Each structure stands twice: as structure tokens, then as C-alpha cells.
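fyi for ur records
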Amino acid sequence: MTFSIITATSASPIAPNSSPPSNASLDSDGDIDVLRTKRHKSSKAIITPGETVTEDPQWMRCTPCPPQRWFHVEEVVELCHGTTADPDSAAIFATVAGTIVRTNKLLSIHPLRARYTPEIDDLVVGRIVSVETKRWKVDLSAPLLAHLQLSAINLPGGILRKRTSTDELAIRTFFNEGDLVVAEVQSIFQDGAANLHTRSLRYGKLRNGVFLRVSGTGGGGGVVRSRRQVWTVHTANGGGNVDVVLGVNGYIWICKHTSGELAATAEEAKRANDFTRMEEGVSESMYSNRNDEIPAQTRKEIARLSSCITALVEGGIRVDEDMVMATYHASQDMALGSEEDMDDGERDFLGGERGKKIVEAALATTRR
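which gave:
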């Protein structure tokens, strides 16, 4: 028996001025909607890096982005919105894996997963990775490490005095390697790195809780920018109050609620223009590395909130205040309706099929 090998023939490309295919649709401007062509039947089609998005010259080309330091190529191409344009032709190629998003004349790729891109006024949770002379380097799950200047934090001696060489020598008493900190993005450097600050008493070192890392605003299910990134949960089963901090970069902190007396004293002094009292309110306890005693009921509710957020991420659902609270209440209802022969560990388990049911119940609640 003989076999014959037939050379495969490539499909001929569609000319820019050719008539649209029968299954293509025209928008209000008379342009072809490439998301409805034979190649992309819907916006949910997955595009891989290097794949040709379109060769039609009607689509907008991105403005050239500044050269990135991690690219070692002889020629700098246009790189933005997840696409790159060939300077010698009208083709647009994808640089990330994701779905096509069309905005008027602009085609962009929404990545399945991506690193966090800092923006001004973002509330972020980061980890100190290095200590330098007048600043700290902070990991935000971004392409570049963020900077936290010594002049951008509250000092125990007072927030209004000038930083001296004594503060530089004692820089490790404020933040050390491995410490977690909640801060706000103050500005963006030219290379894309974030400049942070913790001047508000709501920010600073994190204690008495658990750290959780999920995907950020890059793509997929994860933390999104919402109305509130920090709130207090009045837990059940005698757990007391628990604080939840959703960092836009995908870092989450769940901890025991602090009394807030320090912040209240400082705010009251600020309204009264009593700066001496304000300086006394910023004590050394805010930079302490020792955790307070946490009751077992509070630790249990912190673990429940952490499992609820993990279930949302596994289901590809956004993580914000409404979804977290809906999932938390759904987990409580399921725990109350569980069989009596189940022990406490099985009743509080929120993974697998049980987690999927809780997420479905939470989605049904939010849609009402």
C-alpha cells in the first residue's frame, strides 16, 4: 500500500478593499465588524501571541510607546493595548493571549492574565523587598518595583517635621524586608514604576491578619476598582468585626478590626488645628511587628472570608465588596442548612463543588 503526501496550500488573504464575507456585519459607519467574521465568531474567541488580528488598514494604529527595558530587539515596534503593528504592512498582531475588545476604530486585546498596571490614587497592598538609604522598594505584582520614600510616611515624632539623618539610620524600625504595607499610589515615574505614600492614618504596616494573593485588574476573575476597597465586616458566630482590604493589584489583607481610636484622635485634632495632639497620636505602636491576641471565633471568620474570595477567583468572578459580602452570607446559609452528621470542618469547607454552589447562590442574590 502506497502513501502520497500532498502539500498543504495556504488560504489566500483577504484584500483590504475586497467585499466583506457573507457572515460579516457592518456597523453604523459602514465598517466591517471583524469580531463577527468567520475567524472570530464572537468576542470570546481566544487570541494567542503572534496571531494576526486583522490586515484591514481602517483600524487605528497605536501611538508608539516608550521603549521597554526588558525588550532586546534591534527594532522597536509599536506596543500597546496588547497589539503590535507591522511598520511594513497594514497587519496588526497580538502580543498577549486574550479576547478582542473593539472600541470604535481601536482593536485591543483583553489579557487572560496580566501584571498590575499602577494608576494614580489606587489603593494597593505591597510587600517590602529591599531597604535603601531614603526609600523602600515594594512589590506590587507590577512589572517594576514601587518606591516608598521616607518623606512619604508618618513618623512617630510627628508628621510635619523634617526628616533627618537620624531617621535614615533608623529606617528599618519603620519597615523591614518582608513587611506588608497598605498604601496609595501618589504618582507614576516615567519608566512606569509607582511612587507610594502612607501619610494617611488609614495606611501603614499590616498586622493581625492573613494575606491572600489573587489576580488583579490585569484580566480574569480578580480584584476590580470599586466604590470601596476597605470596609469592616460584622461577622457572625461571635467573630466580632473583621477588616477587609482589597488591593487593586490583587493583594488582599483580612485582619482583626482595630479600635480606630488612634485615627479618631488624629482626625479630631486635625479639625481643631491642634497639631501637637496630632503628632502625639502617631505612636510607635503603628510600626510594631507583634500581633495582638486574636480569639478563635475571629480567626475562623477570617478563614471563611478568605475561602469566599478564593471561591470567587476560581469561578472567574470579580472580587469587590458586593460579591464578597454576598458570598459570605451564602456560605453562612449553606453552613446552617448542612446535614447534622457533618462535623465542623466539613460544614465550613468552601472548596470544590461546595464553593461553586456558594458562588452560584451569591450571583443569584446580586441579580435580584
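Residues 10-42, 67-79 have pLDDT under 50 and may be disordered. thats all i got for now
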